[in-house]
Structures are given as C-alpha cells and as structure tokens.
Amino acid sequence: MKLKNTKLREGDEVIVISGKEKGKRGNIKQIIGSKCVINELNLAKRHTRPNPQLGITGGIVEKEMPIDLSNVMIWNSSAKKRDRVGFKLDGAKKTRIFKSTGKEIK
User: Fold this and answer.
1) Which residues does the UniProt record annotate as the domain KOW (predicted)?
2) I want to staple 7 with a disulfide (CB 3.0 to 4.6 A). Which of 28, 77, 85, 86 is the partner?
C-alpha cells in the first residue's frame, strides 16, 4: 500500500504534536509512506558491525527514526504556531496555503 502525502513535503519545517519528542521542531528529511524522518529528532541507538570494505566503523551509532505523519504539523513561522495545510486552485495550478492566515507555503 503506497500512500502519497500532498500536504507535507521534504524540507518543510514541522513541529511534533505528540510522543516523546512533543513540542520540538525540525525539517523533514525524508517521507517514507505514512511516516517521516525529521532532522536530529527521534534518535535511537543502533549497534552496527564494522565493514572495512565500505569504510564503516563499528560501534553504537545514533540514528534518526521515522515519526508518523499524524503526529506532526507544519510550522507557520509568520504566526509562530503550528498550522493546518489547505489548498488553493489558481486555474490549473494547485498551491498549498496555511489555513489560519491564507498565505502560500513556500
């Protein structure tokens, strides 16, 4: 089952609204189905085996883990609060807007 999220995109600044990282902000690094990886958030320790052929040193590495998209909202920097995403049609062009202010999301 492949889900396509049109409201949030890679590079968007988001705020986490539930879970252990609640209240923290960051940029979306990658979207995987219905989850997203946010820079420097939801870190987990991963034990890795060394691989000299690939130049990987072994040990305990901190890795960013995915967060469900339902647990994040886009950050409206002009209003300094979280916001919902809406859409506006200009002829054939569809643009994302903030629901509270109506301004276009860049």
Assistant:
1) 7-34
2) 85
